[in-house]
Design brief:
There is one protein chain. It is built from five helices and no strands. By secondary structure, the protein is mainly α. It folds into two domains: about 40 residues, no CATH class; about 70 residues. Helix 2 packs across helix 3 and helix 4 runs antiparallel to helix 5. About 0% of the residues are buried. The mean pLDDT is about 80. This is Plasmid mobilization relaxosome protein MobC. It comes from Algoriphagus confluentis. It holds the Pfam family NikA-like. InterPro entries: NikA-like.
């Protein structure tokens, strides 16, 4: 079997410092070597290289924010139930409608986040 050095060819390229820095940072953020990143870019044929780590971090932030929203809603519901006799029925009806919309949007968002997560993993 041939040695890898016999199969691979060396290419020397001159880059502007900004381009080199950008490539180095991109390779570091993706967790691949500079050579591997360049091979990926050359073989991608129009497809894009996705920073899955960045996407997963963004999903984590969205999920954390959603947890805070849900906590706030629970606190509001607790106060509403505590002072139920002082709140008009119209407000409760409005709350129920808004809560239904929120739950629908939340479930839809969770569905898409799960699809994105599965596609990345």
């Amino acid at each position: 079997m041939k040695d890898k050095r016999e199969i691979l060819s060396w290419v020397s390229v001159r880059l502007k410092p900004d381009d080199y820095t950008r490539l180095k940072e991109e390779s570091k953020s993706l967790g691949v070597s500079l050579s591997q990143l360049i091979r990926m870019k050359l073989s991608s044929e129009g497809s894009k290289i996705i920073d899955t780590k960045g996407i997963l971090n963004a999903i984590d932030k969205v999920v954390a924010e959603q947890a805070r929203v849900n906590n706030n809603i629970n606190q509001l519901a607790k106060h509403a139930n505590t002072y139920r006799d002082k709140i008009s029925p119209e407000i409760f009806l409005s709350h129920t409608i808004q809560m239904s919309k929120h739950l629908e949007y939340r479930d839809c968002m969770n569905k898409f986040l799960k699809q994105i997560y599965r596609a990345i993993k």
